Amino acid sequence: MTDASLTTRQRDLLQRWFDGELAEDRVPEAEALIEESQAAADYVASLESMQRITRGLADEVRGGPGWSAEETVSKALDAPPAADEPLRELAPLLERYHDGEVVEAEAALVRRLRRRRDDVADYLKGLEQLGDAVRGADEASRDGIDFDAQVHAVLEAVDSQPPTFDADEHAEWLHRYADDELDAERRQIVEGWVDEGHPEVTDALKTLDALGQTTRAAFDQAGGHNIELWDAVADAIDDEEEESGGSAEVFRLDDYRQGIAGAVAAALVLITVGALFGDRLFPWGERVVEKKTVVIVDSVEHSEGSSVLIDSPMQEAGASESADDPKKATKKADDEASEDKPTVIWLLDSDENKDDAESGGTEDGSDQQDKDRAPDAGADDADQPPSGQPI
Amino acid sequence: MRTYRHILVALTMLGIVGFSTAAKAEDPGITVEIRSIAADKQGEGFDSKLSDLKSKLEKVFDDYTRFEQLTSVEFELTPHQTKSVTLPEGSQISVTYHGPADDLLKIGLEISDKLSTTLRASPGSTFFQAGLDYRSGILILAITVDK
C-alpha cells in the first residue's frame, strides 16, 4: 500500500482525493500528481482495489449483489497495466475507459497514457468516432429516418465524385474524346479535367487534335487521287466492255488476268523447285525403303578349255522373256529378292568342265570364244537349276 | 502486255532451272568395290569382314566351310572408263563402265583371257564371280557397283 517514491504528504493528498475529502482548491494538485507520476497512479489504483475488496466482502456478507469472494480477491490481485504495455494489452482498459466503466485511478492512468502515447490517443479517438456513429444511427432510427437510405445516399455521393485523372486508366477516354466517340457522362468528366487545367490532359488532347488534322488532310488528299484513279479504271472497263460486247465474264477475267498469270508462274516455279530440291528442302519426308537389286548378264565369253555358268535368280525366274525387257526383269528379280540369292558367274576350268560334263552339265567349252547369251544358258539349266556348285 | 511479261519471266526462270538440271544430270560415274574371298572346304571359319555377305555366301557356296577376305579394292569409274586390279591368285580383272542403261548400270568384266562378260546391274547390287583356283579351294570375287 505504501509507495516509497511518494512522500507522506503526497500519499495523504491522494488518499483524501480518493475519499472525496480533498478541498476543491487542492483537487487539481492531486490530479496533476496522478497524471504525472506513475507511483501516484499506482497508489490510487491500489486504493481502488482495496475499496472494491472491501465493498465486495461487505456485499457478500450482506448477501447482496456484488463480486464473490473469489472474484473479489482475483480483481484485487489484478495489477493495473503498466504505461509501456503494448496497445493490445491496454485495449480492454481503453475500451472500459471509453464506456465509462473505469475507476478514477484507471481514468487518470488512461488520461496520462493518452497524453503521452499517440497510439493510445488514436485508439481512443477511433472509439469515440465509432461511438458517435453508433449514436447518430441510433438517433436517426429513433427519429424515423431511413438509415439505409442515408447510407445509400452517402455511397452514391461517393460514387458520383468525378474520378481523378490517371494517365494509364483514362488514356482511352482522351482518344475517344478526341474522336468525338465518348458518351456524355465521360465527356463531361474529361471536360472537367480540361477546365481544371490538368496539364497531361490538355497536352494529350492537343497532340491528338494535331494528329487527327494531319490524318484527315492526308486522307482527303489520297481520297482525291483514288477518285481520279477509279474514274480512269471505270472508263477502261467501259471501253473493254464495249469492245467485248459487254460481257461481264470477260470483265472479270481481265480484271484478274495479271494475278492469275502470276499465280501460274509461281506454281510452275514451285513445282519445279520442289521436284528438284524437295529431298533437300524437306528431309523429314525421307523414308527408309528396302533397296532391291537386280543383275542381268547380257553376254559371256570364255577362253578355250573352260566354261561359264550363270547362276542367277533371273534365269530361274524365266530369263528368256525378261532379258530383253529390263523392267520386267526387275519385277521378276524383285520377286526373287526375298530369297536373297545373288547372281554368280562361275568360271570353270577344263578339268572341272570334264567332271561337269560327265555329270550332265549344260555349258561346255568346246567352242573357242563362244558367245553365249546368259538367259539361254539359264534356260538350259531350268531342269537342273545350279545350286552354286560347279557343274 | 504486263501479263505476257510475267509469263516470259517465269519461262526464263524455268529455262534456267532446267538448264542447271540438265547440267546436273550428267553421269558422274560409278563406284566399284571388288572383294577377293578365299573359299575352302577344309576347315571352318568365317571372316568377320564378310559379315555383310554371310547369308549370301552360305546360301550360294554352301559346300564351302571356310571363307576369308583377302583383299578389298574400291575405285570410281566414269562412263567408258576401265580399271584393272590384280587378283590374289595373279590374274587381272578389268572393269569397264559402259554407262547407264535405263535404271541399270552397264558393266563389262574381263578376267585376264579367261572370261569376258557384259552385264547390267542396278545401283547398289552385288554379284559374285567364282571358280578361279586358289590354294586348296576357289577364289570368289564379290563385286558391288553403285552410283
Question: Which protein chains are joined by the largest interface, and how many residues does each one contribute?
Answer: A-B, 47 and 45 residues
What shape does the CA trace of chain A take? elongated
| Strand numbers in spatial order across the main sheet of chain B | 2-3-1-9-8
Order of H and E elements of chain B:
HEEHEEEEEEE
Which spans of chain A of ≥5 residues are poorly predicted at pLDDT below 50?
A: 317-324, 352-391
Number of helical runs of chain B?
2
**Order of strands across the biggest sheet of chain A?**
1-4
Main beta sheet of chain B: strand number and arrangement?
Answer: 5 strands, mixed
**Overall mean pLDDT of chain B:** 87
Keywords:
heterodimer; A: 391 residues; mainly alpha; 4 domains; two-stranded antiparallel ribbon; 17 helices; disordered C terminus; B: 147 residues; alpha+beta; five-stranded mixed sheet
Brief characterization of the structure:
Helices cover 66% and strands 5% of the residues of chain A.
Provide structural commentary.
The complex is a heterodimer of chains A (about 400) and B (about 150). In chain A, about 65% of the residues lie in helices and about 5% in strands. With about 400 residues, chain A is mainly alpha-helical. Mean pLDDT of chain A is about 70; it is low at about 315-325 and about 350-390. Chain A has a two-stranded antiparallel sheet with strand order 1-4. A two-stranded antiparallel ribbon of chain A has the order 2-3. Chain B has one domain. Helices cover about 20% and strands about 50% of the residues of chain B. Chain B contains 2 helices and 9 strands; from the N terminus they run H-E-E-H-E-E-E-E-E-E-E. In chain B, the strands form 2 sheets. Chain B has a 5-stranded mixed sheet, with no helix packed on it. In chain B, strands 4-5-6-7 form a 4-stranded antiparallel sheet, with no helix packed on it. The longest helix of chain B is centred in the first third of the chain and has 23 residues, at about 1-25. Chain B is elongated, with a radius of gyration of 22 Å. Chains A and B meet through helix 12, strand 1, helix 15 and strand 3 of A and helix 1, helix 2, strand 6, strand 7 and strand 8 of B. Strand 3 of chain A pairs parallel with strand 8 (about 125-135) of chain B.
